[in-house]
Amino acid sequence: MHSIESTYEKIGGDRTVRRIVEAFYPRVQQHPLLKPLFPEDLEPVKEKQYRFLTQFLGGPPLYTSIHGHPMLRARHLRFPITPQRAQAWLQCMAEALDEVGVTGEARDEMWNRLVIAAHHMVNTPDEAGD
Fold first, then answer.
1. DSSP 66-84
2. What does the pLDDT look like over 59-101, one tens digit per residue?
3. Which residue range is the domain that position 81 belongs to?
4. Which positions does UniProt annotate for heme binding (predicted)?
């Protein structure tokens, strides 16, 4: 019997997820729409993102084992996530995936799920005139 390989395995597992997180957060810190939403010390945020992405992509349930169910939208409601911010987040992630070299079918699978998640997080309309 052949087991189906997860997206996590297809992109290279733990090492690749770590590299994505390390490539992603410097971009977030530089982005004018995203920077205000994040604390100065990104280490705890990066660790949570690493655990979340590992689980989200089909790897070990690192996030749930420590933090419980992800409940993404509920956990992010205190932050004003606009459509523009969701798009900015996706742009930073796309650049991180490019930097790390995630390509092909695995990238498409990952990207499709990230787009759905990012749009699900929107809880505030864009400012008029932006």
1. HH-S--HHHHHTTS---HH
2. 999 999 999 998 888 999 999 999 999 999 999 999 999 999 9
3. 10-121
4. 119
